[in-house]
Amino acid sequence: MPRRTLIAGHYMHVYQSQLGAIRTSLKLTAMRFVAFLFGLSFVWFSALSVDASFVADSHGLTYAQWQALAAVRISIVLLPLPRNFRVQFFRTVYDDKRGIYGYTLDYGDRNGDVIEISANQIGQLTGEALPIQLRSSPAPLRFRSPRFGHVAIANVKDRPGCVGTPWLPYLRNRYEINYCGDAHVNRRQLADWISGAVVVAPGRGGHGRYGFTAPQWQALSTLEMPVVLPGGLPVGFWVAHVQAFGSNAGKGETNYDITYSNGASSFEFSGANGGFGGVDVSATAFAARFHSKILGSGRIDRPPDAPGCYADANGPMMLADGTGGNGYSIQSCGGGRIAPSLLARMVTAARVVYWGK
């Protein structure tokens, strides 16, 4: 065989061998990269799943309640309670007008025993979590908790069958934990639960909508009532403050209050599942009527008991779909109040942006 043919065949064999090695290397690299992405996604998904399952399954919180807790931006204390304890009462406080945030979470069992956990930021009182008064006799049970440091558990004054703690500081928040039941409530049992407490940092909310920040919208979109917003907002107005108070259906009032402002003038739009008052009054020269597909017909006027305000003058505005139980109100007060005709126009264009849980 000619020498040239042998040389060419040799180099062709070398080339094919090198090409095969390159292909094998590329396949291995691709497989490793896919495995890395899969592992990364698995770790990321697992981290999310652990948080969600830990809160929703082990502690009886629904996804909506978890979202509501995340909105108040306070770390959530979870106790290693027995599975026979279930969430009986749930309430959140979100008030960025006064900078007040907090929550109350009660667990109970079939025997009537209740674990109460209240939280707010240090230096604030939410109205839901007032400091309890503890008895000095019998002597408090004192121990050290990995999360809260030195803790004392004592009998609660004026609440027979209850033991509890004073405020327990953690980061910028404080917590109060009570255990109420029959005459045999075990303070050592509560101490063990507090020692095993887990603190979960709230997650970030999603993107805000309708001009709200993400925490504001998250607080509104977890309420157990329809959220109605005024339509046709005048140019230059923005959401200045949001207050949202949520609780279990039938176990406390749920309401919200939104303040809109342009820097010189402002108005408030409110909603509640109860607690609205008001009577129909005679029309004045300031009256402006509205006809809303959402809130029915009525008028904006100057109430006799609040001459410095313009507001809905026919009592609470109710949803026109007949669901009932929820009332809405609009008002503008003070020197920067808005004309009744403009308020009436916004009520006419009102819309439901969230129907509640």
Low confidence ranges: 1-15, 33-58
Fraction in beta strands: 25-35%
What CATH first level of the largest domain would be assigned?
Alpha Beta
Helix content: 10-25%
Cα-atom radius of gyration: 30 Å
Q: Which structural class best describes the helix and strand composition?
A: alpha+beta
Write out the CATH superfamily name of the largest domain.
Answer: MucB/RseB, C-terminal domain
Shape: elongated
What is the annotated CATH architecture of the largest domain?
Answer: 2-Layer Sandwich
Order of helices and strands: HHEEEEEEEEEHEHEEEEEEEEEHE
- CATH topology of the largest domain: the name is Phosphorylase Kinase, domain 1
Overall mean pLDDT stands at: 76
Count of β-strands: 20
Largest sheet: 16 strands, antiparallel
Distance between the termini: 87 Å
What labels would you give this structure?
two-stranded antiparallel ribbon, 16-stranded antiparallel beta sheet, Protein Transport Mog1p, Chain A, 25% helix, alpha+beta, Phosphorylase Kinase, domain 1
